[in-house]
Amino acid sequence: MDYTFHWRPVTKAIPDLLDAALLTLEAATLSMVIGIVLGMGLALLRLHGNRPLYIFATVWIEIARNTPALLQLFFFGFGLGAFGWHLSPFLIVLCGLSFNNAGYLAENFRGGFQAIPDTQIKAARCLGLTATQTYLRIVIPQVFRLVYHPMTNQLVWAVLMSSLGMLVGFRELSGETQFLASNTFRLFEFFLATAIIYYLLVKVVLGTSHLLSRKLFRY
Amino acid sequence: MSSDASAIQFFSGFQVNDLWFLAEAAGGTLLISAIAISVGTFFGCLFGWALTASRWTSLTLGSVLDVFRSVPLIIQLLLFFNFFPIIGLPIDPFAAGSIVLIFYTSALVAQVARGGIEAVPASMRRASRSLGMTYWQDMRYVVWPVGLRAVLPAWAGVALGVLKDSALVSVLGYLELLRASQILITRTQEPFIILSIVGLFYFALSYPISKTTAKLEQRWQYD
Amino acid sequence: MIELKNVEKKFGDLRVLKGIDLSVKRGEVISIIGASGSGKSTMLYCINALEQIQGGQIVVDGIDVHDKSTNLNELRRHIGMVFQQWNSFPHLTVLENVALAPRLVLGKSKEEARHIAEKQLKHVGLGDKLDVYPTRMSGGQQQRLAIARALAMEPDYMLFDEVTSALDPELVGEVLDTLRLLSDDGMTMIVVTHEISFARDVSDRVAFFHQGVIEEIGPAQQLINDPQKARTQQFLSKVR
Questions:
Q1: Dihedral over alpha carbons A35, B179, A59, B155 (to 10 degrees)
Q2: In a 10 Å sphere around its CB, with 0-12 CB exposed, 13-18 middle and 19+ buried, how is residue B164 labelled?
Q3: Do B160 and A66 count as a contact with CB atoms less than 8 A apart?
Q4: Domain ranges of chain A
Q5: Cα-Cα-Cα-Cα dihedral of A106, A109, A114, A120, to 10°?
Q6: The whole model's pTM is what?
Q7: Under an 8 A CB cutoff, do A82 and B178 touch?
Q8: Contact A34, A98 (CB under 8 A)
Q9: What is the pLDDT of residues A83-137, one digit of tens each?
C-alpha cells in the first residue's frame, strides 16, 4: 500500500466542518418545523377534508413516501428550473426535506389522531370547550406524545438526508466536505472525519430528544 | 423511428427509445436492491438474533450496527468507494454499492429482527420450553412464526427504504434509474418530464409493495 | 327544568328512543334503570346534544336544545356530564384537569380557576392530589376527578352515565358517596345506573327504561319496592 494518510488538511479544516455541521442541523431542524406544520395539516385533510382536499393530501403523502428523497430534491432543483424557478441550494434542500418530512409525519399524525379515544373529545365538548379549543388543548398535546418517538426518528433521518445537499451545491456538512476534499485530494480522510461528525450529531439529537421528553411528558 | 435520426441530433427531446433506456436502468435499480435486500436480510436476521443472545453481543455488535444507521448512506458509499484504491484494490461502482447497501440493510434489518424476537411474549416461550422443546425448537416453531408476523410490515418498510436509497449509488456512477435520469436530462434539457417519468418508475416499484403490506398489517391486526 | 317531549332517536333504521316524555325539576334527582341497550345512555347524550334527535323536542330552561340557532357551547356550560369511562385528560395534572374549562370557557383568570378547582377537588376528597397526574390514580379517584371537573363549571344540571360500571367493585362506594354528597347539596341530577339500592336511597324518582320507552316511572321507594308493571318486576328480580 503506497498511500500515505495526511490528516493535517483535515485537522486544519475542523472549524469549517463544524460550521457546516451547524448548517446541517439548522436545515434539518427548520425542515422539521415546516414538516410538522404541513404534516399536521395533511393528516387533518386526510381525516376530515372533502374529496379534492383528501386526494391532494393523499397524493402528496404517497409521492413523499414512494419515491427517493434525492429525486424529490432534484425536483425542487432542476425540475422547477424547467419553469424558470431557480431556488438557491439552501432552499432546494429545505423544500425537499420539508416535503418529505411532511409526507412521513402526516401518516404518523394520522395514526396519533386516530388513537385518541373519541370519548376524550366528548368529555371536552361537554365542558363547553369549542372544537378548536378541544383540538389545541386536549387532542394535539396527546398526539404529540404518541408521535414523539417517530418524530425524533424523522429528525435523525432529516439530519442524514440533508447530506444530499452536496449533490445540489449546498455546502452543509457533506457539501463542505466534498468541496474541501476535492481541493486537497484527501477524500478518504475528509469523509472519515465527516462520518464521525455525523455520528456525533445524531447522538446529540437523540440525547437532546430524550432529555426533552423527560421534561415534556411527566405523566 | 430511425436510429440515425437520433444520432444526428445531439440535444434532442425525449424519445420513445429513452423509455427503454429508463426501463433498463430500472432493472439496475431492481438488481442492486434485490441483492442488498436478500443478502442484507439474511445477515440482518443473524445479527438480530445475536443482539438478543447475550448482553455482550448486544453491546458490541449493537454499537457497530448503530454506526450504519447514524452516518448518511452517501458518506458511507463515498468512504467505501475511496477506501479500496488506497489499499491497491480498485473496486467498481456496482460492487462497492452492493456491499455498502448490504451492510446498511443488515443494520436496519437487525433492529427489526430483534424487535420481532422480543415481540414474542416471554410467557409463550416459557410455555414452549416447559413442553420440553429445546432452545432451537422454540426458536424454529414458536419465535420464528410469531415474530415474523409481528415484524413483516417493519421489514417491508426497510426493504422499500433500501429500494429508494439505492438511488444514491448513482453517485458512484452505477447505472440505475436516477443516474439514467441525469444522463437524459443532460441530453434533452427536459428535467421536469424526465424526473416525473423516473418518479413514476419508482412509484410503480414501491407503491404496490407498500399497499400490500398495509393491507396485510390491517388484516393481521384483527385476528 | 329539563323537559323531553315525545323524543325520537334513530341510529339508521334502529329506533333507540321511541317517544320519551320526561321532565326534571330543579333540585330533583332522577335515576334511570333498565337493561343494556334500552336507550338510557342515548337519552343523556341527546340532552346535551352529543347526539342528534329525529323527532320531538328537548327543552332546557326554556332553550330548545336541538334548534339550529342554539349555542351549544353556551348550553353545555350549564349541563355537566360524567361518563362511564372517566376520560381524565392524561397530559394535565389533576388541578389542571379541573381548572382548564373555567379558564377557557368561563374566562376566569389563572388564579380564580385555580381557586375554583381546589375547592371542587377538596369537595370530592382529592384535595391532596392536586399536582398528581391522573394516570397515577385509581379508577375511583379518576371518576371523582371527572365529577369535580364538571362541577367546576358550576352547572345547573348533572348527567351521570353509568359512572360506576367500569370500576372495580371495591371502588364503587367512594364514587356513590360523592353522588350522595351532590344530592345533599341540592344538585339536579339524572343518573343512569345499575346500582339499584343507590337509585332507591338517593333519588326522588326512578324511571325504568325498556326498549326505548319509559315503561314505568314513580317515586323511588315505591318503584323499587313495589313495581306495578310486569317487566319492571322481572327486571328488578333479575338484578337483585
A1: -80
A2: buried
A3: yes
A4: 26-110+149-216
A5: -140
A6: 0.83
A7: no
A8: yes
A9: 888 899 999 999 999 999 999 999 999 999 999 998 899 999 989 899 999 999 9
Which of C217, C220, C201, C219 minimizes the C-alpha distance to C209? Answer: C217
Q: Which CATH architecture has domain A26-110+149-216?
A: Orthogonal Bundle (1.10)
Type of residue at C125? G
How many other CB atoms are found less than 10 A from the CB of residue B186?
Answer: 11
Chains that touch B (3 or more CB pairs under 8 A): A
- Reported residue count of chain A is 219
**Which residue type sits at B99?**
I
Mean pLDDT of chain B: 87
Side chain identity at residue B127, one-letter code: A
Q: Which three cell numbers stand for residue A95?
A: 423544500
How many Å is the maximal CA-CA distance in chain A?
Answer: 78
Residue type, B116: G
List chain C domain ranges: 2-78+159-239, 89-155
**Minimum-distance CB partner of A127 among C74, C90, C153:** C153
Among A116, A122, A125, A126, the residue to mutate for chain C (most C Cβ within 10 A): A126
Structural domains for chain B: 3-221 (1.10.3720.10)
Fold classification of C2-78+159-239 (topology level): Rossmann fold (3.40.50)
pLDDT over 70 at C205, yes or no: yes
From chain A, pick out residues whose CB is under 8 angstroms from the CB of C134: 219
Nearest-CA neighbor of C163 among C185, C184, C181, C142?
C142
From chain B, the residues in CB contact with A198 under 8 A are: 70-72, 75
Instruction: For residue A136, count other CB atoms closer than 10 A to its CB.
Output: 13
Please choose, from the candidates C90, C100, C46, the residue with its C-alpha nearest in 3D space to the C-alpha of residue A120.
Answer: C90
Element (H, E) at C6: strand C2-11
Chain C residues within 8 A of A141 when measuring between CB atoms: 91
